[in-house]
Amino acid sequence: MLTKIYILANVPVETSGIVIGIEELLGQAVVFLEAFLEIIAILIIVAAVLIALQRLLKRISQARSSQTWEFIRLQFGLALALSLEFLLAADIVATAVSPSWDSIGKLGAITSIRTFLNFFLQREVQELEAKTQRTRQKLAQEQQIDIWHQSDGSGIITRK
Q1: CB atoms < 10 A from the CB of 98, how many?
Q2: Which of 114, 138, 146, 153 has the most neighbouring CB atoms within 10 Å?
Q3: Secondary structure of residue 148 in the 3-state scheme
Q4: What is the helix (H) or strand (E) element at residue 150, kind and residue range?
Q5: Confidence band for 147, pLDDT divided at 50, 70 and 90
Q6: Does an H or E element contain 63, and which?
Q7: Any residues with CB less than 8 A from the CB of 103 and at least 6 apart, and which?
């Protein structure tokens, strides 16, 4: 076993082309994976923008729409957070293959900025979710209170 490790450590010039070929193949795979992840992130943003615009136009055209501005912002914010995760994954993949100090520094800065943005975006999304839930509970309680019915046909109206 030690002999094989020694032989691999001293790769002859003739076989070094194979090692370089594998490194190039890995580099190309990383470039494609990085581009693929970035394309997914862009498609998520485009889809989120189109859905948000459709919901906004629907809300504007219908006076009695049940969707609120907060719900639209909540859905859009969740999509942006998901997109940020894909972009961060693309940066990690790009740095994983050839980690120079320059690329590690850039990844650290980008990761810090995206983590900062994602943290506050998630916090706002959670606040909007809680507000939406409280509004739904309040509406459900009001609907229960406002239900009136006539008891036993006597003409007396009571709350249910």
Answers
A1: 11
A2: 114
A3: strand
A4: strand 148-151
A5: low
A6: none
A7: 94, 95
Decide if 69 contacts 102 (C-beta within 8 A): no
Task: Measure the CA–CA gap between 15 and 75, rounded to whole angstroms.
Answer: 54
Helices (H), strands (E): how many in the chain?
4, 2
Closest CA to 131 of 74, 81, 79: 74
**What band does 41 get if pLDDT is binned at 50, 70 and 90?**
very high
DSSP 14: T
For 64-111, write each residue's pLDDT tens digit.
Answer: 555 577 778 878 888 888 898 898 888 888 887 777 788 788 788 878
Report the predicted TM-score, pTM, of the whole model to 2 decimal places: 0.62
Position of tokens 């639209």? 72
> CA 25, 83, 79: angle at the middle one, nearest 5?
150
Q: How many CB atoms lie within 10 A of CB 24?
A: 10
